[in-house]
Amino acid sequence: MDLIWYALLGLFFAAYLVLGGYDYGVGLLLPAHGDDPDRRAALTAVGPFFLGNEVWLVAALGILFGAFPHLEGELLSGLYPAVVVALVGVVLVTVAVQLRGRPDRLAARARWDHVVVGGSALAALGWGAVLGGMLQGVPLDAAGHVGGIGHLATPFVAATAITLVTLVAVQGATFLSLRMPKEQAPRRAALVDRLVPVALGAVAVTTLLGLLSADVRAAVNAWAFLPVLLIVVVLGAARAFAHRRPGWAFAASSVALVAPVLVVGLGLYPAALVSTVDPAATLTVAEAAAAPSTLRLLSWLALPLVPVLIGFQAMSWWVFRGRIDGKAPVYW
């Protein structure tokens, strides 16, 4: 039962990275849109999905708090600076996107656009640091306490944070290639062409730093770096398909955002959180899970809710499929 819930936690967080990833990617790329109408069009492209995408984060956090209370406490205490940065970014983006259309003056809208860009960067950096911190492990002692925050100030954690920013930017670019008017396709393809090499370089640096880090090598199963190679392959496919097949490009960049979650989940298992100071203090998935009776109760609650959530997401994509045009509703 605990393994099923652990897989469900990974599924929900991966779905959030994929769906919220293009929200933040579009936000990061706002400076690439020169004038206010162009920036507003980019936000309109993401408008029908924006708030619904964040539901996956709420669901993932709900699973963490309900099904893995021990992991929640030690994860948040060990990585709380990164979690706070991520959540601050999420809030800033949510607020700024909805308020940027209210002022009439272009200068005021531009200031809100800056908040969207900054919030998107913080969200991606924060979640990237959380994933990097989990791969690296935390100084968890036998009493279940994590001392200090210095373990987050490492080249590997910084590299994972930056890598997620680049992957999110690629996701935003491929999403816009699907949703913006077709006459803008060459411009979107050129943007993907510029971003993919940057993302590939970031992935390569992160992989190298992980291999050089004694903590990462000790915490992660050796074969768990194979999904990182998948990221490289997928980003190469995104670049190849960008000009003629935007759907394939978006699918590829989406898989690239799923891969880091696979690296963490498969690489650490059966551990959920690795201690870098006391191997005996490492928290396994079974130890992190709630009591079997609690998991059974949560299963009965989740049984009707998960299909509804997936069905709503599918319906949203189906209803708002296709490219935006001058008749598309303006959300912001």
TrEMBL record:
Recorded source organism is Asanoa ferruginea
A GO MF annotation of the entry reads: oxidoreductase activity, acting on diphenols and related substances as donors, oxygen as acceptor
Protein name per UniProt: Cytochrome d ubiquinol oxidase subunit II
GO biological processes: aerobic electron transport chain
Per the record, its GO cellular-component terms are: cytochrome complex; plasma membrane
The places in or outside the cell where this protein is found are: Cell membrane
| Annotated keywords | Cell membrane, Membrane, Transmembrane, Transmembrane helix
Chain segments annotated as transmembrane: 6-30, 42-67, 79-100, 112-135, 155-178, 190-214, 220-241, 248-269, 297-320
Taxonomically, the superkingdom here is Bacteria
Membrane topology of this protein: Multi-pass membrane protein
Upper taxonomic classification of the species? Bacteria, Bacillati, Actinomycetota, Actinomycetes, Micromonosporales
Which family is this sequence assigned to? Belongs to the cytochrome ubiquinol oxidase subunit 2 family.
